[in-house]
Amino acid sequence: MFDVVVIGGGNAALCAALMARETGASVLLLEAAPRAWRGGNSQHTRNLRCMHDAPQDVLVEAYPEEEYWQDLLRVTGGLTDEALARLVIQASSHCRDWMRRHGVHFQPSLSGALHTARTNAFFMGGGKALVNAYYRSAERLGVQIRYDAAVDALELEDGRFVAVRLGEERIPARACVLAAGGFESNREWLREAWGQNDNGEWPADNFLIRGTRFNQGTLLKFMIDAGADTVGEPSQSHCVAIDARAPLYDGGICTRVDCVSLGIVLNRHAERFYDEGEDFWPKRYAIWGRLVARQPGQIGYSIIDAKAIGRFMPPVFPGVKADTLPELARRLGLDEAAFVRTVADYNAACRVGRFNHTVLDDCHTTGLTPAKTHWARPLDTPPFYGYALRPGITFTYLGLKVDAHAAVHFGGRPSPNLFVAGEMMAGNVLGQGYLAGIGMSIGTAFGRIAGTHAAQAARQGTHHEAA
């Protein structure tokens, strides 16, 4: 019998498996995906948001705990558990040495990744390199790994974990860590969560999935039906505006369109619908998927001119390009007169001061609804570019309620040997909104906590068996 079984194959699962193994436990990791697609959404990540009080290796200046907390408080609108959030923030300040010991390398902030040199540590080779490093380390340490191992159910007895079920196969263990992701790849569950809008549309039908197709939420649904305490609202998620031409699954980071704050965003009626200059992009980029999801047809259009080129990370697909605004409208399939009128109204409302995209500058609009509060400059320099946008779901926030030991709760009581990490519990920290890199911070912190406490629970279980 294994001491610890870890269900999942991404960052949180791997951190849990490594910590449990380092503590001396025998560990089995069950990854639903085939080996070639292992790693869940973590394979598409780039960085980890880190608290630090002074310059550290790849991080410049300082990013103290209170600033990190205030940033999180702002984007979540207060929908966060402060104690658990601060646990994540504090853990982010001292996890990188451990990560390095397991083969993860870091590099300075990427050129064009705005405002992250101070707050985010980037993985050399991205998330795929991180995942591969962790798998190599796990194999070297003796963690047993099975791929194509989608868990259907658990055996539970009064809140205690007994065994894993894979079809007809039963795998008992002394403790278990759940780290199998959310339900973002389950279209029916997304439809149920989002419902129909006033136009009779099912918004979820037009969502693209930025990450893995294997996050079906099977285990999450099982745990909810088994009476586990939950947290989060089903329609809340890390939802980003991505290129409408992106693939249905696994488009990853390169499909994100990062020029929103440098221009304007229109719906299919060629109307603006939100302040594009509200805040710095790493703090606000993840609101745009949800904003687009609320527009007719779940589509938007990011419009920029030549002045924006070179100021944002270019997406993998080039934008639609035109020498005149009417021509751009036609190429995007938007009403030409409405498009030109919207741009003209915006241009006339711009009050250009000292443009500086690295600060909250004084370039704004007046007399325009919605206003653009920063970085407002007329769209007047050809060529012009347009990017069609769709909502891109990264991961869902409905999850299992936890405590500081990462224990799953049933009726307010923590399980003695069942723990959860990563996207399956991220809603404890992220009730809504997102901060760049915090998903990896949550997965790393709670993966390590869950693995440590699972190993401890397994030792206690061994003692009970011996007695």
Task: Please explain how this structure is put together.
- The model has no long low-confidence stretch (mean pLDDT 95).
- The chain has 467 residues and is an alpha+beta fold.
- The chain has 12 helices and 21 strands.
- It has 2 domains: 2-182 and 217-231 and 398-466, 3-Layer(bba) Sandwich (FAD/NAD(P)-binding domain); 237-391, Alpha-Beta Complex (Flavocytochrome C3, Chain A, domain 1), CATH 3.90.700.
- 28% of the residues lie in helices and 21% in strands.
**Distance N terminus to C terminus?**
17 Å
Mean pLDDT: 95
- Domain count: 2
DSSP helical segment count = 12
By CATH reckoning, the class of the largest domain would read Alpha Beta
The count of β-strands is 21
In terms of DSSP E residues, the strand content is 15-25%
CATH topology category name of the largest domain: FAD/NAD(P)-binding domain
CATH architecture group name of the largest domain: 3-Layer(bba) Sandwich
Structural class: alpha+beta
Radius of gyration: 23 Å
The unreliable regions are: none
Tell me the name of the CATH homologous superfamily of the largest domain: FAD/NAD(P)-binding domain
> Describe the biggest sheet?
8 strands, mixed
Shape label: globular
Helix content: 25-40%
Organism: Pseudogulbenkiania ferrooxidans 2002
GO molecular function: oxidoreductase activity
Domain FAD-dependent oxidoreductase 2 FAD-binding: 3-439
Keywords: FAD, Flavoprotein, Oxidoreductase
